[in-house]
């Protein structure tokens, strides 16, 4: 029950006005509150939702061990899709089940409590504990044995979808030294991502930004190795007016071709894809944490948490006018804590 009080508020013109506290609106009973059949039906629905979560967890564990990537893109896709869908149902069953339970079975009476000091007296704390106990009793969990069992099962099993992959990966390949090298090497053609079509220097206009991957065979593009190697070799290439470049670092004077310059697309902060190019300022922006790199000044950091420039890919053209790499990146790609001496 709430008590009605008069509240005084200042009037804009200086007078005082009074209004009555409207209190809590009249409680409206739900079907489950008045109809035993509706109550039982709602309980069954909640049980089904949590059962879906249990099944989703079991399928996720099965998929992790049974539907393993076989080294092909199709195999990786099937493994990822199966595992993802199963975990979705495991999580969705818990979330939707909890919401439906709260909406249909738990008490929905609105109450008002006066605000007190942070530390309540002992007798008040005892009352609060009793109210928690009453709330548990009111939720019906004690007398709904099937519901209690399926809720406990769903909550207990779901963490396995995360714990099992983590535990099974212990002892795996954690060698970050693999980030020192990529597929880029002398003579590798630059191609459009994702088509793999080689790029001619004459096709790149001033002000444009092109997403680039190294040229590989069609057979290699179907392998699982290509997926991880492509992720390391992603490049963003931009063409500027050569007059916009700031003085190049010593030894890098010939790493561009007619205003075309290429950098690793992997942010040196935490590895997000740097893909936003601002043509007027020649800045590259990482969308994750707003690290900003100046393309005209060797992709140096001008803002944000990144600690070093984007690694540059030295480029030139071959005899047919196609853009090719002069060598690999000038430094290890990715976040700074992956950097190692060559």
Automatic annotation (TrEMBL):
<keyword id="KW-0812">Transmembrane</keyword>
<keyword id="KW-0001">2Fe-2S</keyword>
<keyword id="KW-0679">Respiratory chain</keyword>
<dbReference type="GO" id="GO:0005886">
    <property type="term" value="C:plasma membrane"/>
</dbReference>
<keyword id="KW-1133">Transmembrane helix</keyword>
<protein>
    <recommendedName>
        <fullName>Cytochrome bc1 complex Rieske iron-sulfur subunit</fullName>
    </recommendedName>
</protein>
<comment type="similarity">
    <text>Belongs to the Rieske iron-sulfur protein family.</text>
</comment>
<dbReference type="InterPro" id="IPR045603">
    <property type="entry name" value="QcrA_N"/>
</dbReference>
<feature type="transmembrane region" description="Helical">
    <location>
        <begin position="146"/>
        <end position="167"/>
    </location>
</feature>
<keyword id="KW-0408">Iron</keyword>
<feature type="transmembrane region" description="Helical">
    <location>
        <begin position="46"/>
        <end position="67"/>
    </location>
</feature>
<feature type="transmembrane region" description="Helical">
    <location>
        <begin position="79"/>
        <end position="99"/>
    </location>
</feature>
<keyword id="KW-0472">Membrane</keyword>
<dbReference type="InterPro" id="IPR017941">
    <property type="entry name" value="Rieske_2Fe-2S"/>
</dbReference>
<keyword id="KW-1003">Cell membrane</keyword>
<keyword id="KW-0560">Oxidoreductase</keyword>
<keyword id="KW-0411">Iron-sulfur</keyword>
<keyword id="KW-1015">Disulfide bond</keyword>
<dbReference type="GO" id="GO:0046872">
    <property type="term" value="F:metal ion binding"/>
</dbReference>
<comment type="function">
    <text>Iron-sulfur subunit of the cytochrome bc1 complex, an essential component of the respiratory electron transport chain required for ATP synthesis. The bc1 complex catalyzes the oxidation of menaquinol and the reduction of cytochrome c in the respiratory chain. The bc1 complex operates through a Q-cycle mechanism that couples electron transfer to generation of the proton gradient that drives ATP synthesis.</text>
</comment>
<dbReference type="InterPro" id="IPR005805">
    <property type="entry name" value="Rieske_Fe-S_prot_C"/>
</dbReference>
<dbReference type="InterPro" id="IPR014349">
    <property type="entry name" value="Rieske_Fe-S_prot"/>
</dbReference>
<keyword id="KW-0813">Transport</keyword>
<dbReference type="GO" id="GO:0016705">
    <property type="term" value="F:oxidoreductase activity, acting on paired donors, with incorporation or reduction of molecular oxygen"/>
</dbReference>
<dbReference type="GO" id="GO:0004497">
    <property type="term" value="F:monooxygenase activity"/>
</dbReference>
<keyword id="KW-0249">Electron transport</keyword>
<dbReference type="Pfam" id="PF00355">
    <property type="entry name" value="Rieske"/>
</dbReference>
<keyword id="KW-0479">Metal-binding</keyword>
<dbReference type="Pfam" id="PF19297">
    <property type="entry name" value="QcrA_N"/>
</dbReference>
<feature type="region of interest" description="Disordered">
    <location>
        <begin position="1"/>
        <end position="38"/>
    </location>
</feature>
<feature type="domain" description="Rieske">
    <location>
        <begin position="232"/>
        <end position="324"/>
    </location>
</feature>
<dbReference type="GO" id="GO:0051537">
    <property type="term" value="F:2 iron, 2 sulfur cluster binding"/>
</dbReference>
<dbReference type="InterPro" id="IPR036922">
    <property type="entry name" value="Rieske_2Fe-2S_sf"/>
</dbReference>
<feature type="compositionally biased region" description="Basic and acidic residues">
    <location>
        <begin position="12"/>
        <end position="38"/>
    </location>
</feature>
